[in-house]
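Narrative of accomplishments. A recurring question from our advisory board has been how the design workflow behaves on a single, concrete structure rather than in aggregate. To address it, we present the structure tokens for one chain from the evaluation set, followed by the sequence designed for it. No filtering or post-editing was applied between the two.
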């Protein structure tokens, strides 16, 4: 049976998928989730596109160097039959989509790649000032934690994923995770450094307009 509390859930015009705690992929078929066979490794990320699906699997990982994990990438038109995508920039882990566009990036490096055809071909690398990516009709949003590097975190915005502007600063230093957008609201989950009696969890909420 599919998990009651999925680790990842995504829905779009092509369907509904979820990833369980033990990382199998499940596809909604009618009113029932069914496990998807045929993927060579546990699925870590998946997005539903307008006309298909794109997933990231972890082939191998060294617990002492998780940033050097070996990834594989998968494309599907219907969520049932998956084909490994070979023309994908290596070691990209963070995954976002908009329409049939797929966005990959490496957490912490500010480097991203974009595919406009569902993950089949990829453009040149794009430098993003922050980490993680969220997209809406209003533009692109990224965050820069204030833990490593600059002591003050920031929220960055762009209309084209090329030219970025610093929209807000965050203080005190804290972890900031990829933004979540719902309607006109942007939510940035974060975790402050645990000091004194200060709550370690702080969520930032703003209006994207």
């Amino acid at each position: 049976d599919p998990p009651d509390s999925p680790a990842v859930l995504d829905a779009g015009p092509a369907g509904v998928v979820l990833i369980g705690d033990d990382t199998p992929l499940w596809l909604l078929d009618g009113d029932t989730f069914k496990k998807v066979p045929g993927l060579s490794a546990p699925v870590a990320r998946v997005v539903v596109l307008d006309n298909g699906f794109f997933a990231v699997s972890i082939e191998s990982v060294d617990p002492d160097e998780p940033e050097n994990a070996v990834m594989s990438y998968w494309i599907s038109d219907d969520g049932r039959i998956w084909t490994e995508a070979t023309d994908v920039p290596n070691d990209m882990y963070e995954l976002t989509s908009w329409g049939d566009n797929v966005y990959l990036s490496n957490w912490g490096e500010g480097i991203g790649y974009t595919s406009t055809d569902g993950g089949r071909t990829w453009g040149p690398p794009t430098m993003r000032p922050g980490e993680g990516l969220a997209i809406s009709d209003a533009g692109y949003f990224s965050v820069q934690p204030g833990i490593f590097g600059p002591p003050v975190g920031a929220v960055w915005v762009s209309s084209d994923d090329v030219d970025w502007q610093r929209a807000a600063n965050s203080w005190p230093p804290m972890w900031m995770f990829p933004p979540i957008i719902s309607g006109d609201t942007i939510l940035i989950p974060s975790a402050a450094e645990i000091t004194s009696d200060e709550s370690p969890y702080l969520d930032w909420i703003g209006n994207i307009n």
